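Posted in: Structural Biology > Protein-Ligand Complexes

Title: Requesting predicted complex, zinc ion in pocket

I'd be grateful if someone could produce the 3D structure tokens for the following input. Sequence and ligand are given below.
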Amino acid sequence: MFRVLLAYVLLFTLPSVQLAAAQDLQAIARINIDKSRISDRLLGGVSVKLSLSQAVPFRVFTLDEPKRLVVDFKEVDWTLFSDEDLLNTDAVTDIRYGIFRPGWSRMVLDLANPLAVEVIEMKTGANPGGPVTLSILMRNVTSAEFARNAGAPEDDGWAFEVKAPAVASRGRQLGDRPLVVAIDAGHGGIDPGATHQEHEEKQLVLLFAREFKEALILTGRYSAAMTRDQDEFVSLPDRITRARAIGADVFISLHADALAQGTASGTTVYTVSEKASDAAAETLATQHDRSDLLAGVDLSRQDDQVATVLMDMARLETAARSDLLAEMIVAGVAESIGHLRKRPHLSAGFTVLKAPDIPSVLVELGFMSNKRDLNNLLNKKWRAQVIEGLVSALDLWAVEDAAQALLLRK
Ligand SMILES: [Zn+2]
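-- Reply #1 --
Done. Output follows.
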């Protein structure tokens, strides 16, 4: 089973691809499908052979839960890629591929069994600058061994991370300027989120995010920006980095997941739980530049303990502000659409909510696995009602939050 996820992205990025092609015709490689195969090895394991029109930088790694083999390439053009006949093994259950970042491509193989990469080589032919074969040989291993080897490599010059310019902190909002709202459309690019029939979560939430942004700006009371405004992959830490780069006062992540049980329905609002926040601090500290952690507080010269304490202080205050926002969103949306599910405000360990200094909530607009929710998400009128509820919640929150900030100052 194959899915072409990124035809849309390819169209979207065509101008830059053409530009690159004009500057350097040799920069973009194509996969020759006739000479490429993914098949079982004779003595067990899997062989991946990809024939490319020319040598390109690449890297290979595995990820766990679910088990995947990831191959990143610089400048591979997928437009003519057809995956018929490529897969000749049951050990790989699905292939996804497409643009991962401008200039970078990713191929993901979903693995049925734990496999370890044994041999990676890129063989050139007689003609330098001509076609090459990337060969990845994998052997069967235990789940424990797979887990030990799995993980994305350290950023060794691949520069996937988008460096955001440091923004001087304007401090907590006091109601004296337009609130800056970071709108985070979940998933994107190679990560479609939940899927149901032809619908993909990444597209539904992007549509909603654009309408939400439009509505906020139209009020004249808000400035709003999106962490992604196209079908691109943005890592979770990058989403926070982007929000911080625009000096966001609040961060609202939008999702529409599917649940296997099929019983979940309705809009739900999440904030990060206390327990998850502690682990989050650790992850954040390792994944971000120190100076990026708390806008306006330079942690790069602090030792780890001081950094942790400063983050804890920021987070305690932020958690209360996030909870207040979540409650107001629940009330605002309930009023605008007339009803909400029973426990509409939950706490969970979402990485995307873990900026220590920006009040953050995650709004599950509905569950794609539920037919009524899916129809709602596809309905412009319903979306407008929810957006109305979100805007009035932000209106109330901005006033209440500013009042509390002034109280804290006394
Ligand atoms: Zn989601």
